[in-house]
Design a protein that fits this description.
40% of the residues lie in helices and 21% in strands. It has 393 residues and is of the alpha/beta class. It has 2 domains: 173 residues, Uracil-DNA Glycosylase, subunit E; 191 residues, 2-Layer Sandwich (Nucleotidyltransferase, domain 5), CATH 3.30.420.10. The strands form 4 sheets. It has a 6-stranded mixed beta sheet, sandwiched between helices. It has a 5-stranded mixed beta sheet with strand order 2-1-5-7-6. Strand 12 and strand 13 form a beta hairpin.
């Protein structure tokens, strides 16, 4: 298929990082160079703030032809009607409309893959949702921005998702600083080609001995052991809670189930013993932290568990550092942790059809990531002279 290349890719010799957008704009076509229009100037400024040398980065697009009126999906996707079959296998009179990539788009995608395989940079920065979906197969740039991801082709590429600078210049100027922050992550990640993630261990189907051992161990640090506690609910009732702390061999977490999809996890006597142990631990150890901890405390107090102190609510501490930015745990994970993939859409609505194990794993993940964020926020509070502004009260 003959492709109309309005703006060819450019790769400086030895470049470690490449920016990939969706398609060239008017200025890019005129100059036959990527990211030189208004959005490109925004990206260049963000690179300057991040200390990333824009002139040494590669530049490309998913499609090298400018879509009319810059409407990418209208140009490169088509809507077709698919037949619908009944449960008995008969052809229904109704059809369903689906959107699919055009033959031209598939050719552009194949060309981009070949191009990236040949250049093989340490890091590919997917700018915007179209680049994200094309290279990783994932959708939702607002969620996945800041995440380090693998490519969908299994070509061992490392991708960092960022919001497209055109989104910033179209009435979202506050997002410029989020882009600049993500590009600081890019500067670190472009120095090596592999994806590196911090590991942790977790227990999601504990015995009564496992549970009591973990909970009681948090009492043995003279109140100096920082830990997080995160609860998950189903239909307004407590389903489980997870604890996470840092031990000699790294971060370890345990999920304590309370109610499963088939009924209580424990006998009455076992559950009573667990709640009594947790009550004693929170009385002795005041270094409890969590995200939006007021929510979790509401459930703990129903069981007679009252903490002797709270070391950090990450949502509130983050608000001191960055009052203008989002405060949800998913954003905090993307902001403070280099290796975390967006996880907050994993079973957003817990129901009776959700596997218990999935809920327990998710709960442990929340507790672990929050514990890591506590450490990063403390570092930032100290660096900016705001440590006492939060902990002093």
């Amino acid at each position: 298929m003959n492709l109309q290349i309005d703006c060819p890719p450019s790769y400086p010799e030895g470049c470690k990082v490449v920016f990939v957008g969706e398609g060239p704009g008017e200025e890019e076509v005129k100059q036959r160079e990527g990211f030189v229009g208004a959005a490109g100037k925004c990206l260049q400024k963000a690179c300057g703030v991040a200390g990333l040398e824009f002139s040494r980065a590669g530049r490309s697009n998913v499609a090298k032809r400018r879509p009319p009126n810059n409407k990418f999906r209208e140009a490169f996707y088509e809507t077709i009607e698919e037949p619908i079959y009944t449960k008995t296998g008969k052809l229904s009179k109704k059809t369903k409309k689906i959107e699919r990539k055009t033959e031209e788009f598939q050719a552009w995608e194949s060309l981009l893959r070949d191009e990236l395989k040949e250049q093989n940079p340490n890091l590919i920065i997917a700018c915007g949702n179209e680049a994200l979906e094309t290279i990783t197969g994932l959708e939702g740039i607002t969620s996945y921005r800041g995440s380090i991801l693998p490519d969908k082709w299994n070509d061992n590429h490392k991708i960092l998702a960022v919001e497209h600078p055109s989104f910033i210049i179209r009435g979202n100027p506050e997002r410029f600083w989020i882009l600049a922050h993500d590009l600081k992550k890019a500067k670190r990640e472009m120095e090596f080609p592999d994806i590196r993630r911090d590991s942790y261990s977790s227990i999601i189907k504990p015995s009564i001995e496992d549970s009591l051992c973990f909970i009681n161990a948090l009492q043995d640090f003279n109140g100096q052991c920082e830990f997080t506690l995160d609860v998950e609910t189903r239909a307004g009732t407590l389903a489980c809670y997870a604890l996470a702390t840092k031990g000699p061999e790294g971060i370890v977490s345990i999920c304590i189930p309370i109610q499963t999809t088939s009924g209580p996890y424990w006998t009455v006597e076992e559950e009573l013993e667990i709640w009594q142990a947790l009550k004693e631990t929170l009385r002795k150890n005041s270094h409890l932290s969590n995200q939006n901890i007021e929510y979790d405390l509401d459930y703990l107090l129903r069981y007679g568990v009252e903490p002797s102190g709270v070391y950090m609510d990450t949502m509130l501490a983050h608000s001191i550092l960055y009052p203008e930015f989002p405060k949800d745990l998913g954003f905090l994970g993307s902001w403070y942790l280099d290796d975390v993939i967006w996880w907050k859409d994993d079973h957003r609505d817990w129901s009776g059809r959700t596997r218990d194990e999935a809920l327990w794993e998710y709960c442990c993940k929340d507790a672990v990531y929050t514990l890591r964020i506590v450490e990063k926020i403390d570092e930032e509070l100290k660096r900016r002279g705001l440590y006492q502004a939060y902990h002093g009260f």
